[in-house]
Amino acid sequence: MPGNITKMQIVSLSEDLGFSTCRFTSAVLDPSVSSRLEEYVANGHHGTMAWMADTLARRLQPRAMWPEARTSITLAMNYGPRSNPLENLAHKQNATISVYAQNRDYHDIIKGRLKQIAQLIVSRTKCQAKVFVDTAPLLEKPLAQQAGIGWQGKHTNLVSREFGSWLFLGSILTSHVFEADEPETDHCGSCHACLDVCPTDAFPAPYQLDARRCISYLTIEFDGVVPEEFRVAMGNRIYGCDDCLAVCPWNKFAQTASEIKLIARPDLQSPELMDLVALDDAAFRAKFYGSPIKRIGHKRFIRNVLIAIGNSNSQRFVDVLKAFLANPDNVIRATAVWAFSRLATREEFISQRSGLMRNETEPLVLQEWQNASENTGETN
């Protein structure tokens, strides 16, 4: 009969499907959440992510996207790493990949399991249900806090007293009404470790993020030549950044991931930059099949790797970089100029510059040659 399902039955099924926690809240967010989002977009902190502005009206409230929604069920899956991800930053000839991207794309893992739960709710209640994993303009972190899973810390990410910073979120909106769980309160206190550790000063204030300065944004969402002021700070990070997550003191309670598909692949824990820069488009697609890294595409990936190489302090990459100085892609070519100028000897730099700069027509690349010449004192 309609309505014949309990919260405990849903929670039990979610545990069977590998979720770490499952909680319920109203599909109505506090108006202050909407105000903060409007301010975020008005300040331009979303950078080139135009979809945030384009979907702003629907993003402000779950019911603005789906008027029939009455309950939001938030589910979280732990992906805690087995070692401190910050340790790899010291290995400058190897790449650092964000923990969440070191195996399968979590969207693919979670979405199918959410659908199983939604199907049970629909079959028992005869109400409607929709599932979301970063696939629609839904404010999942505020809903998770309102449901009691954790709170949005000063770095704007969700923090859990049980799982620290390492949780993937998924949501089910349903027209069925379930009793809401108690929300979580903020437990950051006076701590500001996440703000202090940020390599690019991406937090203008606690609980505020300027994506335009965030390494995750720069390596994943941003499509052009990375502004020079951020390149050295990027270090060997080629996809995402975990610094603000990894330093959170609440991670002392974190658990390692139990879902096999979320445990880091050995070849992605600290891959050699020399191997990555050698990947052509086909090899890139094959290596990162099923990985979130694949979605940034080969060109953006190589751009990121070239920046990491420029920060490697190793001349073993100089000959490799020479090949990229004539790459047909403007962004790759410009980035290669910067990386080459940091590693090449004075003689090598002058030799390459004299011919390539003379024949260059792209303003982006010419500017990089000019900047590199000034930085190395070779302006003639």
Summarize the structure.
About 45% of the residues lie in helices and about 10% in strands.
Q: Could you give the topology of this structure?
A:
Elements: H1 7-16, E1 21-26, H2 31-42, H3 50-54, H4 56-59, H5 62-65, E2 71-78, E3 96-97, H6 106-125, E4 129-132, H7 140-147, E5 151-152, E6 158-159, E7 167-174, H8 193-197, H9 215-221, H10 228-234, E8 237-239, H11 243-246, H12 266-269, H13 273-277, H14 281-287, H15 297-310, H16 318-324, H17 330-343, H18 346-359, H19 363-376
Parallel strand pairs: 3-8
Antiparallel strand pairs: 1-2, 2-7, 4-7, 5-6
Helix pairs in contact: 15-17, 16-17, 17-19
Annotation keywords:
alpha+beta; 380 residues; elongated; four-stranded antiparallel beta sheet; 19 helices; two-stranded parallel ribbon
Tell me what you see in this structure:
The chain has helices at residues 7-16, 31-42, 50-54, 56-59, 62-65, 106-125, 140-147, 193-197, 215-221, 228-234, 243-246, 266-269, 273-277, 281-287, 297-310, 318-324, 330-343, 346-359, 363-376, and strands spanning 21-26, 71-78, 96-97, 129-132, 151-152, 158-159, 167-174, 237-239. Strands 1-2-7-4 form a four-stranded antiparallel beta sheet, sandwiched between helices. A two-stranded parallel sheet has the order 3-8. Strands 5-6 form a two-stranded antiparallel sheet. It is built from 19 helices and eight strands. With 380 residues, the protein is of the alpha+beta class.
